[in-house]
Specification:
Largest sheet: 4 strands, antiparallel
CATH topology of the largest domain: Type 1 dockerin domain
Distance between the termini: 49 Å
Number of domains: 2
CATH superfamily of the largest domain: Dockerin domain
Number of helices: 5
Strand order of the largest sheet: 3-4-2-6
Number of strands: 8
């Protein structure tokens, strides 16, 4: 009998939920229905014993709840891995404009933007989010995968320790951040 495993709720600013699903589950035609509203990325992850995982992602709004269930398999696979990446807090600016004519009109404009940053440490794929897909890309770069593509901005974002290259040390620090072992401020060089 398959059952629900866990319920998760988006934090105050929301979050992105990543599921790494053993590709043997997909090959068996057993992709769980609860993954139906997730987006399957082109990225993959692989263990040292050659198990390959597909990466699924879903943005959770603040307070939104999701229940994770079974992988629909009875053996011969790894269940799945769950990672959460908190969303960056947005900055809200309010501007009041007053125009004076024969009557006074006040217009209030509110704009919400993410804080600007020249370098987003850890965002190797330049997606605007620091997440597991960046870790996958950085891992591929560190092992000289000829098919891994990273542009100059991605290299700068991925060079977390500031030594001029994307290395295993950068990847290790990024993984510590993604596991919530260090803050984003501690991720920076």
């Amino acid at each position: 009998m398959f059952t629900d495993y866990a319920s998760l709720r988006g934090g105050a600013n929301g979050c992105t939920l990543y599921i790494l699903l053993d590709q043997r589950v997909e090959a068996a035609g057993n992709t769980p229905a609860w993954l139906g509203d997730f987006t399957r990325s082109a990225g993959t992850a692989q263990t040292s014993n050659d198990v390959t995982f597909s990466v699924y992602a879903k943005n959770l709004a603040a307070g939104e709840q999701i229940t994770l269930g079974s992988n629909n398999m009875n053996g011969n696979c790894i269940c799945y891995t769950v990672m959460l990446q908190p969303s960056a807090a947005a900055v809200t600016e309010t501007t009041t404009l007053t125009a004076t004519t024969s009557t006074t009109t006040t217009t209030t404009l509110t704009e919400t933007t993410l804080p600007p940053a020249a370098v987003v440490y850890g965002d190797a794929d330049c997606s605007g989010d620091v997440n597991v897909l960046d870790a996958v890309l950085m891992a591929r770069i560190t092992v000289d995968d000829p098919e891994a593509e990273i542009d100059d901005r991605g290299k700068k974002n991925g060079d977390i320790n500031g030594d001029g290259a994307v290395t295993a040390a950068d990847l290790t620090k990024l993984l510590s951040y993604l596991a919530n072992r260090i803050s984003y401020e501690d991720l920076k060089p």
